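Thread amino acids onto this structure.
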């Protein structure tokens, strides 16, 4: 009498050699379900919601205890196979969700992120508010109304951590929006994350929580500046775009001055990016005729072309004497 037929197997090569593994993941999932059932019934693990959820997911993928595959699956492999990951680039796209709303997707090496285009990126409404930032700002306003001042309002370590986790969601979205050239959304989300930094730096109970996010302020300021200036570049308002970049550089410089490292401003990546952007914008600015004549005069003097230099001086004086309109 023969025993049960062994499950089909496949050779899997690893860095250390090879081992024999079941060819079907369904048998692995079924084994995991049995293992969890055995441990939970023995009392080794408490019957937590997370483990019950894991068991249900495993049973769903195996079609229940009999191991029959079902029609629907949580496997996102087919989606990933149609959208290859390209290392070193930010792979972002927009898709239409089943709810009829546009979603943003970011391709990662091991999967993807999907985000809402407005509100909180994961679509949640913590405490009935748009975000945790809105919730804590609402708490602050209520505290001021009740006490007459902001004195005594504090954010706990857990609340600050939750705000940081939420800010990371917005970070993923605003870098995605920047790639998609949706600059208004970048301005909105970067301004929002700057508000998180301000809230934590002022009201966090812990010194660490007050300072930990400040290291990202130059980067957020840079992205906010690039987005705002890019909006003006689209409108061909090069002067306004240039002014925005100059103000952004001043804000970043002020940050390094405030933290006691003014020398770091010149070599900071954020300031280098904005200075390069400013140079690109400046190429589109109309040339100031006086500045151009002065440049040519200086060049003529250096090269000892005195006759041309005299002519340029006369031209400069003529322009200066003209009444301004």
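Threaded sequence (325 positions):
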């Amino acid at each position: 009498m023969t025993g049960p037929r062994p499950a089909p197997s496949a050779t899997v090569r690893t860095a250390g050699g090879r081992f024999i593994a079941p060819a079907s993941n369904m048998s692995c999932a079924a084994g995991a379900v049995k293992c969890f059932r055995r441990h939970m019934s023995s009392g080794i693990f408490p019957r937590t919601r997370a483990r019950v959820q894991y068991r249900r997911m495993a049973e769903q993928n195996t079609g229940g205890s009999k191991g029959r595959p079902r029609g629907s699956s949580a496997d996102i492999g087919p989606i990933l196979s149609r959208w290859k990951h390209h290392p070193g680039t930010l792979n972002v796209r927009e898709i239409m969700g089943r709810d009829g709303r546009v979603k943003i997707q970011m391709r990662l090496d091991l999967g993807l992120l999907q985000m809402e285009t407005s509100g909180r990126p994961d679509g949640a409404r913590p405490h009935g508010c748009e975000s945790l930032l809105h919730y804590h700002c609402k708490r602050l306003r209520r505290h001021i109304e009740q006490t007459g001042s902001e004195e005594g309002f504090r954010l706990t370590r857990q609340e600050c951590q939750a705000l940081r986790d939420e800010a990371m969601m917005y970070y993923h979205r605003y870098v995605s929006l920047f790639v998609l050239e949706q600059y208004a959304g970048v301005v909105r989300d970067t301004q929002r994350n700057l508000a998180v930094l301000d809230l934590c730096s002022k009201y966090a109970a812990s010194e660490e929580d007050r300072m930990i996010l400040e290291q990202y302020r130059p980067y957020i300021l840079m992205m906010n500046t690039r987005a705002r200036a890019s909006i003006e570049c689209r409108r061909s308002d090069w002067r306004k775009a240039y002014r925005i970049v100059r103000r952004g550089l001043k804000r970043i410089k002020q940050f390094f001055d405030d933290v006691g490292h003014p020398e770091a401003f010149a070599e900071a990546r954020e300031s280098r990016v904005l200075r390069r952007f400013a140079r690109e914008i400046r190429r589109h600015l109309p040339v100031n005729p006086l500045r151009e004549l002065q440049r040519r005069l200086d060049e003529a003097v250096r090269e000892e072309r005195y006759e041309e230099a005299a002519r340029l001086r006369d031209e400069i004086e003529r322009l200066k004497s003209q009444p301004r309109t």
